[in-house]
Amino acid sequence: MPLLVIVALILVAELLLQLIAPGLHDPTFFNVQGTFTDRPDLREDPKLFWIPLDRFAGVTAQLEQTPPADCIVFFGGSIVYGWPRPDNGSYPEFLQERLAADPQRAGLKVVNYAFPGYSSHQSSLLAEEILSDHDVKLVAVSHATNDARRMSFTDREAAKINGRIAKRLLYRFNKSKIFTIYRRFILGFVKSEKPIWDETGAGGKPRVSPTEFRENMLRYINAVSAQNARLVMISHVDNNPAFRAGQDNYFRVMEELAQNYDNVAYIDLRPEFQKLFDTPEPDYMNAEDPSLRLLVDHCHLTKQGNRLVAEILYRELNKLGWLD
User: What domains are defined for the chain?
Assistant: First the structure.
């Protein structure tokens, strides 16, 4: 009997909290990787970990309105998405502007499925899903930074954990106001963005190993080859030596695959950016005038940086004849 009373009291308290504290819910249980813990515009996805509430509906609508022969689709993380927005735009947006200014290529449309935090594990699964339903002219993908990020679990391990019933039950519990209070105040997560099961640290392992990265890129290659499309893989630019060293293996995979497949190309942005970074004046890395800088931080692009990438892509894709 006392147990029934306790259960009844909890249910009544939960009901009252649902009615009087609508803003208390803290959607932090997106995935074991612990990304975007305070974003109410996202929802959990067992396969992709986190996705926009509309599941890319706006992007897909744009894709469906574009003839396949005119469609260029981008995939990636925050660097391709354009972060921080809206000030700096994104290089897919500026590539669209560049194409629109060219009378011969004004009909080409750029669609951007990149999303902050995404690794090649997530984006290749998304690309596989999108490309199975939609034919396109060209697919562009850029990854390394998120893949090389060290976590307690690899993305493949996280996917397995996300599929377990205990994880799903915890996510359901998280919708409870009482459980949220318990997590916040009893466990001491009042201001922490760290989910209770995430143990990030330098001693972790890459979210995606170079071997897994290669398999993810092959998933892209298979998806574009199935519809006779083309794939361009794009490097990142990073001015932090420690991060750069961790990314080189991923770029080598891109280069090797591009050499082995006729419908695959690799565009390395780093040499052109490095030439500018090595130029004494203006200081493209640390100039007091933010409009001169190419990077916001060690890897995210400013508006100037995004425009430069768009120009490089336009030039290199033209050389390949892939915009014709």
Answer: 66-152+203-320 (3.40.50.1110)
